[in-house]
Every structure is written in structure tokens, then in C-alpha cells.
Design goal:
single chain; Jelly Rolls; 21% helix; Galactose-bd-like_sf; transmembrane; membrane; transmembrane helix
Length: 281
């Protein structure tokens, strides 16, 4: 056996080993048995593609990132637009006080403030007096309503229908009612002391025109005549320290009163005060 035979035999063995490793191809028309490709016609290795699920996930992630970037740009753009459209808040305008002293000093004009308003509102408080009417309570006491009474147009002696009382009486024959009965023979005689009084209650308030005192010999050297609407608060109608007795007429000038009294201060004798009549008109 020659060297060429040995080489041919080695080539046949290597070729058979290679052909057994190649995949079988379908038989061509008109042939039988598997078709084996020659060594020169073996196709190149095809690159392996990634699974379709992995590619689809990557696309979704890229789309989400793109949407987020677009949304972020819109928010920034809108914020900037609003910031440009909205004017900056201006400083409040201070108006000058119209009346009364200013208790709060207005700040001077400065950056961001209205110079006209700052000039109109000085920093120092105003001391100009207020000309507006006061709304507080008045210190002047309110006047009491004026009391009016019935008019005694006929000039009747109102003491005849009055109830007369006194501080005391000399005895039962000289009670205070006898000075209000219209009888010049009867009289009221007080106790024998300086401080004595006789009072007539007219029953209602009248507009008085005058009071008449008809004295007996024991008269008052010093006395006063007073009137009252309620019997508690008394107003002096007449006062004297130089009584002369007899008939003394005291003008009332329309004084409104329900009660009239004579208050003796000093007697002219050692006896009491003695009144024949107390007339009230």
C-alpha cells in the first residue's frame, strides 16, 4: 500500500466523521435517502434573537419614560405662565385719618409703598381736636319731666276737701281739721313748742295759685310754706323770719302740688301756733 492510499483512507475517515455530525436534509425530488450538504455549502451560524416578551417590556418602559418627561415639561410651563400672569401683591394703601387723634403712626414712604399715601399719613400722631359730636354718655344729669296738675279754674278753696294732719294739737277742741273747715270761729292750736307743722293732702295734683294763712293771736314769728307732689320731697314756696300774724297771702304761681304744709320755726308767744284757716287755691 502506498502513501497516497494512506492519505485517501485518512481523508475518507475524517469526511465520514464530519458528515455524521451534520443534520439530515429532506431528500430532493427524484432522489432517495437523506441528502447531506457538502462542507463548502454549510450555512453560517444564525444569531439568536431575544425573546419577544423581553423586547415588549423594554418598549413599555421607554414609552412610560417619554410620557413622564412630556408631563413634567407641561407642569413647568404652566407654573411659569401663571407666575408671569399673576401680578405681585402690592403694598396696602394707608388713608389719612379724618377726625380724632391718630393712634397708629403710618410708616414713611419706602420701596414698594405708595408715596402719596405715605405723605398723606404722617408718622407722628395727629393732635387736632375732633369736631364730631360725642357719642359717649353726657355728664350733665337729665332733667326730670315737668309735672303738671289740674287747673282750679273756679278758684275754689281746695283745703275744704283735703285731709289735714299735724305734728300735734293742744287738745281735742283744736285739732288740725278745724283749720280746713271754712269756719272762722274754729281753729287748730299746736303743742307749746317751736317746731310744729300742719299739712293738707289735696288728694290729687293741682296747679296752685296761692296759699292763705289766717292766724289767731298766737302766730308764727318765723315759719315756711312748702309743697310736694309725693309727700316725700318738699319744695319751699315761702319762708319768713318776720311774721306779722293776721291774714298772710302767699302766691303759688301755678306750682304743681298735691301736698301743702306750714312748718313753724319760732312762736311769737309761749303758746303754740294757732291757725283759724288754711286756704289753698
Amino acid at each position: 500500500m502506498t502513501d497516497s492510499d494512506d492519505q485517501r483512507r485518512s481523508l475518507s475517515r475524517a469526511e465520514n466523521l464530519r458528515l455524521t455530525r451534520m443534520p439530515s436534509l429532506p431528500p430532493r425530488p427524484g432522489t432517495t435517502g437523506p441528502l447531506r450538504l457538502p462542507v463548502e455549502e454549510t450555512p453560517a451560524a444564525v444569531p439568536v434573537r431575544a425573546p419577544a416578551r423581553r423586547r415588549r417590556g423594554g418598549l413599555l418602559i421607554g414609552l412610560v419614560l417619554l410620557l413622564l418627561a412630556a408631563a413634567g415639561g407641561g407642569v413647568v410651563y404652566r407654573w411659569r405662565s401663571d407666575a408671569v400672569a399673576s401680578p405681585a401683591p402690592s403694598a396696602p394703601t394707608t388713608f389719612p385719618a379724618v377726625e380724632g387723634p391718630s393712634l397708629i403712626a403710618s410708616p414713611a414712604a419706602g420701596p414698594g409703598r405708595d408715596p402719596v399715601a405715605a405723605a398723606a399719613s404722617p408718622a407722628t400722631p395727629s393732635t387736632a381736636p375732633s369736631t364730631a359730636p360725642s357719642t359717649g354718655l353726657s355728664s350733665v344729669p337729665a332733667k326730670k319731666p315737668q309735672v303738671t296738675g289740674k287747673v282750679n279754674a273756679s278758684g275754689t278753696n281746695l283745703a275744704l276737701r283735703a285731709t289735714c294732719t299735724a305734728s300735734g294739737a293742744e287738745a281735742d277742741g283744736w285739732l288740725p281739721k278745724y283749720a280746713c273747715d271754712g269756719d272762722p270761729e274754729s281753729r287748730w292750736s299746736s303743742a307749746f313748742s317751736d317746731t310744729q307743722w300742719i299739712r293738707a293732702d289735696l288728694g290729687t295734683t293741682w296747679q296752685l295759685t296761692g296759699v292763705t294763712l289766717v292766724w289767731e293771736r298766737s302766730y308764727g314769728a318765723s315759719y315756711r310754706v312748702e309743697t310736694s307732689v309725693d309727700g316725700k320731697t318738699w319744695t319751699r314756696l315761702y319762708v319768713t323770719s318776720n311774721g306779722h300774724g293776721g291774714t298772710e297771702q302767699i302766691p303759688a304761681k301755678g306750682t304743681a302740688a298735691r301736698f301743702v304744709r306750714m312748718v313753724g320755726v319760732k312762736r311769737v308767744s309761749s303758746y303754740g301756733y294757732s291757725l283759724l284757716e288754711l286756704e289753698i287755691r
